[in-house]
Structures are given as structure tokens and as C-alpha cells.
Amino acid sequence: MKKIQISPSILSADFSQLGNDIKRLENAGADMIHVDVMDGHFVPNLTIGPPVIKTLRKCSKLIFDVHLMISPVHKYIKDFADAGADIITIHPEATENLKESINHIKSLGKKVGVSLNPDTKVSIIEKELEKIDLVLVMSVHPGFGGQKFIPDVIKKIEILKKIKDEKSYRYDIEVDGGINFSNSKNVINAGANILVSGTTIFKENEGNIKKNIETLKEV
Fold first, then answer.
1. Which of 31, 36, 65, 133 is catalytic?
2. Helix, strand, coil % (nearest 5) of the chain?
3. In terms of Cα–Cα distance, which of 81, 91, 69, 76 is closest to 111?
4. Catalytic residue flag (residue 176)
5. I need a labelling partner for 149 at 20 to 30 A (CA). Which of 12, 47, 183, 199 fits?
């Protein structure tokens, strides 16, 4: 198994102190920074866009793991690539041509991720898995932080791990939504190697983010 990596979601950070919080995460041992981009259309919430990411890019050398919950997504991919995203993750439901969008992300020199909502089946992206760098399994319905983990997604993680092993694919399996100290081990044991967490990292143990990151990595 690849080493477990933690991608803290800045959706749970103090938005008046985003730059400082990103630096704190880097100093505390975060492996990457998870940036949730929401458009109020594909999901019922609004967050940040390319100009903010471009500004935050100056605050850290960590990988920017940018999750685009926007539709239509294809025409905005280059904007986020130019802003400093390292991994660009899209939803198959948000593009008219998934293969074309995957190729577009790769042509910009970025890693490509595809996200599966709790109700989205692995079969929808199975033909593209060989080209994908990361599969993001949503363990809540996207849109808001602080939701409870949906246990049924464990089966989806296991399916993705099985396909990956059988076909020697190289994609990372990332899980996002309600990740905490109680369920993180089950997620890792199912095959995930990247955990996204916001509330747990920023709020548990009186906000001791270093301790929280280290605890989430324990198997």
C-alpha cells in the first residue's frame, strides 16, 4: 500500500486567515491542500475561484488538490490550471465529454482526478481509469462541510482497489466527506491512500492540527 497522505480541506479553515492556515497545515505535516470549488449550481454552495487560488499559491509549496464542483466544467479547467492547481478533479456529470476533459487536463501538465458522488457507480468511469491519476470517492453528498460519513462508500473503495490491483493501474484513491478518527482506519483498510478532512483536522484536540493529521494517518 502507498503511504497514507492527508489533504486537509480549507473549506473548514478561517477564510479571513486562509494564507496563514495553509502555512500552518504545511508546518503540521499536511501532504497537500484540498481546495473545494463550488458554483452554487452543480452543488448548493459557493466557495472560491481561480483568483483566490492564484493568491493562495504564493503561501505554500504543497500540492494543490483542486476539486471542481462546477458545471459545465470543461471551459474553466485552464483557468484553474493557470491559477496554480496541481491536481484537477472533475465530476463525470459536469462535462459533456469526460475523455476530452481528462485529455485537456493532461495537456496542461496537470494530474487528473475524477470524483464519484455517493450515488455514482464506478462503471461510469471504468473505461478511463487507466488515464486517471486520482479517483476521489465522495463519502458525503458534495456541497457542505461537516456532514456524516456514508458507510456504503466502503464497497466502492474496495471495488476501485480491486480494479487497480488486477490491472496494475496507478491511480490514487482519495476519500472526502465526514472523515474522522473513527472511520479513517476502515477507509484506509478498504484501499484509500489519501484522506481529505476538514472539520476533524481543524476542530479536534482543541485545534491541534499536527496531532490530528498524525492520528488520521494511523492504521
1. 36
2. 45, 20, 35
3. 81
4. yes
5. 47
Identify the active-site residue in 21, 31, 65, 176: 176
The mean pLDDT of 125-148, rounded to a whole number, is: 92
Element (H, E) at 104: helix 98-107
Write out pLDDT tens, residues 71-115.
999 999 999 999 999 999 999 999 999 999 999 999 999 999 999
Active site residue 36: yes
Nearest alpha carbon to residue 148 among 113, 182, 178: 178
Give the DSSP H/E element, type plus range, for residue 216.
helix 209-217
Across 183-209, average pLDDT: 97
Roughly how many angstroms between the first and final C-alpha of the chain, as a whole number? 11
Q: What is the pTM of this model?
A: 0.96
C-alpha 141/C-alpha 1 separation (Å) is 27
Type of residue numbered 131: K
